[in-house]
Amino acid sequence: MYTRNLLWLVSLVSAAPLYAADVPTNTPLAPQQVFRYNNHSDPGTLDPQKVEENTAAQIVLDLFEGLVWMDGEGQVQPAQAERWEILDGGRRYIFHLRSGLQWSDGQPLTAEDFVLGWQRAVDPKTASPFAGYLAQAHINNAAAIVAGKADVTSLGVKATDDRTLEVTLEQPVPWFTTMLAWPTLFPVPHHVIAKHGDS
């Protein structure tokens, strides 16, 4: 009984904010609209390849976008990738990025930014808490790189041009596209990392 009542109360409280922004049509609004978001605590990092706690992960999900996202029904939807092909019996994926992608500073977002993000994720020097995630996805050489037995450039991901990303897997992974919605596989701005490194 207690558990049922607690679940009911949590559901009710969780749903309350959904109605807070229900503004009737033609209601005059303030000239400046401000959205405040309570994080509950300070994030440990906003680096997609280093994030591990929920607060930071939620902020990173608000700031960055991967190749795909998961809708409310748990279905994979295009995000930075407008479309993709699955080849070689599910061992090779070709992602085509949307045109006009750019970072907040106006610099173009390219397939190389995804390559860099993924290479950083498996690089032992980055010490990503989710380095093994790419090995679980069976991306070529990910496990060997994480173990320090292969160079990061041997990772099974490459940019064939600014808008095309090719990923090679060691074996077919039917749920591979769902894994792409996690921040560890988000792009990072190549020009910022080149200038500032991990600082």
TrEMBL record:
Location of the Solute-binding protein family domain: 75-188
Compartment(s) of residence = Cell envelope
Q: Hey, what's the signal peptide range on this chain?
A: 1-20
Stated name of the protein: Bacterial extracellular solute-binding s, 5 Middle family protein
Protein source organism? Escherichia coli 1-250-04_S3_C1
Q: Which domain of life is it from?
A: Bacteria
- State a GO cellular component annotated for this protein: outer membrane-bounded periplasmic space
Membrane recorded as keyword: no
Asked if the record carries the keyword Transcription, the reply is no
Q: What is its main location?
A: other
Among InterPro entries, the record links this protein to:
SBP_5, SBP_5_dom
